[in-house]
Design brief:
The protein is an all-alpha fold. The protein is built from 14 helices and no strands. It starts with a helix and ends in a 6-residue tail after the last helix.
Length: about 290
């Protein structure tokens, strides 16, 4: 009798686990569809006509007919290649500068313990609460004095000299997780602090490097306000600036969707390539030592 009761309880527990698993997985699938569907609709609409977008069901994601006319019409109005090149060029150079400056600052705060290092770190983090709009006028005045108005160098130098509080935080937290025995062994072998940084720490920090690169790439590619102030000549424009102008006068929904696809693709490709490193760093960055 007791054996039968145990078997019955076991079966009941298993059934509850199965039902719970089905409910949880079903909810997560529904949530994923809800989040992903707008992107799928945007991609599909870029290859549709306006008639299809306005008269067919929003659940129909298959273009019929499948057309590239929206991209052709867009290319007739904008120099897409030049704008995309400008955006990609800045989105590659600025992250490199940000990584270089932020990683060195984080290494000093994580490993070169000195008086006031924690205070400096707290002050750096506090800058995250200051809106970027506050620094627009001083930065603009500095760039005018340097003669860098309407130049990509204004965007690059601002990122290189200011660094990023978020990037410094991520680097510092990750550097703290690297065993000190590695750097101690390097120092005993005659390696300088610069050697420790470039030969030991950075090669073992690929996940956080990928994470900062993704965040900086996304921020630079999507940047609008600061580039719109500095880049007054459309020959220097990025695709984000062109897309903003397009949204102000273009009435064709399908052409707007084509422009949006061009804007989304680079970020999507970068994230797909480095998604594993990105997720690993986000999971570990907040649980290391201080």
């Amino acid at each position: 009798m007791e054996a039968k009761l145990k078997i019955k309880k076991s079966m009941t527990f298993k059934n509850k686990r199965i039902v719970g698993s089905i409910i949880y997985n079903g909810f997560m699938i529904l949530l994923c569809i809800t989040l992903i569907y707008p992107f799928l609709w945007t991609f599909a609409s870029a290859f549709k006509t306006n008639y299809q977008i306005y008269h067919e069901s929003a659940l129909n994601l298959i273009p019929n007919p499948f057309t590239f006319d929206n991209f052709i019409a867009l290319a007739q109005v904008y120099d897409i290649g030049r704008m995309v090149f400008n955006g990609l060029y800045l989105a590659l150079v600025i992250p490199l500068c940000s990584i270089f400056v932020s990683s060195m600052a984080a290494f000093a705060l994580a490993r070169l313990r000195f008086k006031g290092s924690n205070i400096i770190f707290i002050l750096l983090l506090s800058t995250m609460m200051i809106p970027s709009y506050v620094t627009l006028i001083p930065n603009f005045a500095i760039m005018v004095k340097l003669g860098l108005l309407n130049s990509h160098w204004a965007l690059i130098l601002r990122a290189a000299l200011s660094g990023s509080a978020t990037a410094i935080f991520l680097f510092r937290q990750y550097f703290l997780s690297i065993p000190k025995d590695l750097e101690n062994a390097a120092i005993i072998d005659g390696c300088s602090w610069a050697g420790v940084f470039f030969r030991i720490v950075l090669p073992n920090s690929k996940p956080v490097l990928a994470t900062v690169a993704i965040l900086s790439f996304r921020g630079t590619w999507n940047a609008y306000l600061w580039p719109s102030i500095i880049l007054q000549n459309d020959a220097q424009w990025t695709w984000t600036l062109g897309l903003k102008l397009l949204s102000e006068w273009e009435t064709s929904q399908s052409i707007l969707m084509a422009g949006s696809v061009i804007s989304i693709l680079p970020i999507l490709i970068i994230y797909i390539i480095f998604q594993r490193q990105f997720v690993n760093t986000q999971m570990s960055s907040g649980f290391t030592g201080t």
